[in-house]
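Appendix B. One record, verbatim.
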Amino acid sequence: MGQAKQKINKLKHFLSSLDAEERTVFDLSQRLLQRFINPVKLRGACYRNSILMKVILEKEYSINSDVVLGYVNDGDDIYISHAWLETNGKKTDLMIERPLHDVGRGPTIILDHIFKGNSDVIYTYHLEKPPEALEAEEQMRQVPEIRTLLEQKETEHARIAKALSSAEEMDAFLDEAAVMGRDGFTYQRVLQTIGK
């Protein structure tokens, strides 16, 4: 059997294994990718997209999901702040393949299913930084430019933790992201764009 046929069969098997809630998550992921993320060329928006998906699933479909704020790692001592969505314990990460800078693209993941796309790196996901990462960061802080960058990322991580504290904070963050991203895609505009 050819690789293309194996890939199609694997996708069919994955889709047939989804329950009704998971099918909704998959469909929402596809609509976001095809009608919002790719056309707008959204990059480096893991926090925004994860919160957006959570809010849409809860408000429009009454599906509970969790935004996980943690870190990703590609095998070195550097752990990068990142967010992803979990539904029924399954990870969805539409943005790891779309980093702000074209360095280290991971595969798009929908409900633990990996869609290779343009990925060139496999990331591991973590809730905390291990001691070796903290030690490496202490070494990097000796360089003023890197210290500034690390402090910015820590501030950003704390801002997202605050945004995840309530539904009101998440709504406010999405409004802020539409302005900061300079794309004008508020929650309502995203809904109008992706349809139901």
